[in-house]
Amino acid sequence: DAKTTQPPSMDCAEGRAANLPCNHSTISGNEYVYWYRQIHSQGPQYIIHGLKNNETNEMASLIITEDRKSSTLILPHATLRDTAVYYCIVRVEGYKLSFGAGTTVTVRA
Amino acid sequence: DSGVTQTPKHLITATGQRVTLRCSPRSGDLSVYWYQQSLDQGLQFLIQYYNGEERAKGNILERFSAQQFPDLHSELNLSSLELGDSALYFCASSALLDSYGYTFGSGTRLTVV
User: In this complex, do A99 and B4 lie within 8 Å of one another by their Cβ atoms?
Assistant: First the structure.
């Protein structure tokens, strides 16, 4: 699996958009970009994934650059419940997920 | 409720003992994955089973073993427990050629005293 680089932490104001960057410069053509989050000590939760195109669901938007070497997860209106560790993972479909250190996001009132 | 059931939620045991953690995957999922998360390390992949067969192995100690049964539930057996085995153990499930990654259970917190 390709390696990813994320900032260790970031703060966000409640109600504002949170933009979480991820670099994956060695991503290969068949690797997807996945985002998961882990709230406190709960099991990680799937957020969104994509291959080439930008994706949006009820939780977030995923913007992937044209060269696929980086991506940004956007939480459009962060709430206190979005405080969590966010993991950016690149992976071939069907293979194991390898978690890095992630970004600790703190949403402040 | 994610659909992945792990039991027990909490387990306290003494060093040298053996414990079994159980996981029932989400309905229709054939793959089961086990992960360990300790305080000083992130989520470490241990092992994957698909439809009863071992498919991938990660950083799993020889004292640990797992299996997946015909009804697709899985058990992770931890023996000769050490203090350092204290951790959260997560199970996840997926279809094999999954487009959405895994669904994780809520974990079993193991404390070795």
Answer: no
Tally A–B CB contacts below 8 A: 56
| B68 phi, psi to nearest 5 deg | -125, 130
B21 touches chain A (CB under 8 A): no
Contact between A42 and B97 using a beta-carbon 8 Å cutoff: no
CA A79/CA A62 separation, integer angstroms: 18
Q: Which residue has the tokens 């079994």?
A: B20
Q: Is B113 exposed, middle or buried (0-12, 13-18, 19+ CB in 10 A)?
A: exposed
Which 3 state secondary structure label does DSSP give A79? coil
- Model pLDDT, residue B82: 97
Query: Which of the four pLDDT bands, split at 50, 70 and 90, describes residue B44?
Result: very high
Non-local (6+) Cβ contacts of B20 within 8 A are: B75, B76, B77, B78
Q: Is the pLDDT of residue B40 over 90?
A: no
Q: Do A41 and B107 touch (CB under 8 A)?
A: yes
Surface-to-core class of residue A28, CB atoms within 10 Å of its CB (0-12 exposed, 13-18 middle, 19+ buried): exposed
Distance of alpha carbon B50 from alpha carbon B59, whole angstroms = 18
pLDDT band at B54 (very low <50, low <70, confident <90, very high): very high
Round to whole Å and give the CA distance between A46 and A33.
12
- In A24-102, the DSSP E strands lie at 31-38, 45-50, 55-56, 61-64, 70-75, 84-92
pLDDT along chain A (109 residues), means of 10: 88 97 92 94 93 94 96 97 96 79 96
